[in-house]
Design goal:
alpha/beta, seven-stranded mixed sheet, 20% strand, binds S-adenosylmethionine
C-alpha cells in the first residue's frame, strides 16, 4: 500500500482531476490559437498568459503524476522543488512519495494567489500539508534563495520559456543522481538543447509526448 493509493489521497486526487477537466476559461477562448502559441513561448508575457489561465488547472496527466511518484520513490527523495504548482495535483503525487520515503520537504512555487489558497486546502485535505511549502510569487524570485542544500527531484511545469532559468537557480543544489522532470517541453527547445548537451552534466531522455526526464550526473 502507498500513500498515493490509499485514503484520503486516492479519492481526493480522483475528485480533483474531475474538477480540473470541468474548468473553463472564457477569456482564453477569445485568444486566437496562434497568439496562444506565441504567448506559451514568450519569456516576457507569461504573467499575462497565466493571468488568463488562472481558472484552469493545467495538471500533469494522470500517468505523469504516477511517474512523478515513482521517480521520487526510486530516488528516495527527501527534498523536492516544483516550478508551477497550480491547484496542487502534481504536488500531491510528489508529497505522497515524500511521505512513503519517510518524510521530507517539497518547495512549490505559484504566482496566482487564488491557486495558492486552494492548493493549500488540498494539501490539508490530503494530509500532506506538513510536507509542503508553497512560495507565492514569481518563481524567478521565490526559488532564488533558501533552497535545501541537496535537492533530489525538480519538477518544471510553470512558464515554459523559463525552464532554463529555473533550472539555473536550482542546478547547484541538485545532488548527483537527482532527477529533473520537465512537462510540455515542445514549447522550450532551448531547454532540451541544454539538458541533452553532454557537457552540461545531464543524462536526458524524452518520455511520452512532451516530457523530458533528466538525471544530474555526479
Ligand atoms: C501547468 S500549471 C502547473 C500544474 C501543476 N504542476 C499540476 O500538475 O497540477 C503551471 C502553473 O505555473 C504557474 N506559473 C507559471 N509561471 C510561473 C512563475 N514564473 N512563477 C510562479 N508560478 C508560475 C501558473 O500560474 C500555473 O498555475
Amino acid at each position: 500500500m502507498t500513500t498515493l493509493t490509499t485514503e484520503p489521497l486516492a479519492t481526493l486526487i480522483e475528485r480533483l482531476y474531475t474538477q480540473a477537466s470541468a474548468a473553463t476559461s472564457p477569456v482564453l477562448d477569445t485568444v486566437p490559437g496562434e497568439e496562444r502559441e506565441r504567448l506559451m513561448r514568450s519569456k516576457t508575457e507569461y504573467l499575462e498568459l497565466y493571468g488568463m489561465l488562472k481558472d484552469l488547472w493545467l495538471p500533469v496527466s494522470r500517468d505523469t503524476g504516477k511517474l512523478l511518484y515513482m521517480l521520487a520513490r526510486s530516488a528516495k527523495a527527501r527534498a523536492i522543488v516544483e516550478f508551477g504548482t497550480s491547484f496542487g495535483l502534481s504536488t500531491l503525487h510528489l508529497a505522497a512519495a515524500l511521505r512513503d520515503n519517510g518524510g521530507g520537504v517539497l518547495i512549490g512555487s505559484e504566482f496566482e494567489p487564488s491557486k495558492v489558497a486552494l492548493a493549500r486546502r488540498h494539501f490539508v485535505e490530503g494530509g500532506v500539508d506538513d510536507l509542503v511549502e508553497i512560495r507565492e510569487g514569481d518563481a524567478l524570485v521565490t526559488l532564488a534563495c533558501d533552497l535545501p542544500e541537496a535537492v533530489d527531484l525538480l519538477l518544471l511545469d510553470g512558464a515554459k520559456a523559463l525552464y532554463g532559468d529555473v533550472l539555473g537557480l536550482v542546478e547547484k543544489h541538485l545532488r548527483p543522481g537527482a532527477v529533473v522532470v520537465a512537462d510540455n517541453t515542445n514549447y522550450c527547445p532551448e531547454y532540451l538543447t541544454y539538458v541533452r548537451s553532454a557537457q552540461n552534466g545531464y543524462l536526458s531522455v524524452p518520455f511520452a509526448d512532451d516530457i523530458e526526464v533528466s538525471m544530474r550526473l555526479g
